[in-house]
Amino acid sequence: MQAVTDVSFPDAVAERSGHAVADVTRVLAEARVPTSDTVGAPHRLRVTRLAFTGKKAGLLTDDIDFDQEFSSGLWALTSQRNDAGKTSILEIIMWCLRGHPKKLQDDVRAWLHNVRLEGTVDDDPFIVEFDVTEGIPTGSLTCGTDVRPFASDAAFADTLSQFMMERLGFDTFQLWVEGQGVATHRWPSYSTVLY
What is the C-alpha radius of gyration for the chain, rounded to an integer number of angstroms? Predict the structure, then answer.
């Protein structure tokens, strides 16, 4: 068993690689490799309410009026039949948390008139509320006195990405993507774990 020492990460890499500490430090900095062992503070993201209205089009033209509060605990969406809206509810939640509808069907998106999601990051409440006109979201993200308006898909995604990255303490990261090269990843990449 190796004894624990107070040798820094760059010093250990330099020793094992046979390179100068200055060279190792420079290469690690260029590659954006953290050289300290600081641990990030844990954060808690929670959805407390989802409400949306709209009108179905097609064979059934029912009004849509969904409003559900989510208390603490485990929640499940169930139905005895397919096409009841279980996946759509989850996708609307993800749209509100990502600012971008990943798998929300175009017809369901077109049916929506107003969407409101309430939640907390740690103990700070936030609200994402928007109207949908011809499939385009126009609304705001509000957290205390911080109000961030948006009026397009791109602005919505950017607003949620900035907010979540700041509040959850995430940093961007880069990965090699086949056919694209090096790509910088932000909140949408992190948010995939919510699925």
Answer: 22
Enter the pTM of the model.
0.75
DSSP category for residue 178:
T
Q: What is the pLDDT of residues 111-127, one digit of tens each?
A: 899 999 999 999 899 99
CA–CA dist 113, 105 (Å, integer): 15
Instruction: Select the more confidently predicted residue: 32 or 137.
Output: 137
**Which secondary structure element, helix H or strand E, spans residue 4, and what is its range?**
none
Which residues have a Cβ under 8 Å from the Cβ of 164 and sit 6 or more positions away?
A: 45, 97, 121, 170, 187, 190, 191
The token pair at 24 is 């190792």
CB 137 within 8 A of CB 128: no
DSSP-derived letter for residue 134 is: T
Q: Which amino acid is at 16?
A: R
Cα separations (Å) of 106 from 88, 91, 162?
Answer: 11, 11, 26
Q: Using one digit for the tens of pLDDT, what is the confidence trace for 54-71?
A: 988 776 778 889 999 998
Closest CA to 117 of 72, 64, 66, 153: 66
Quick one: what percent of the chain has pLDDT higher than 90?
45
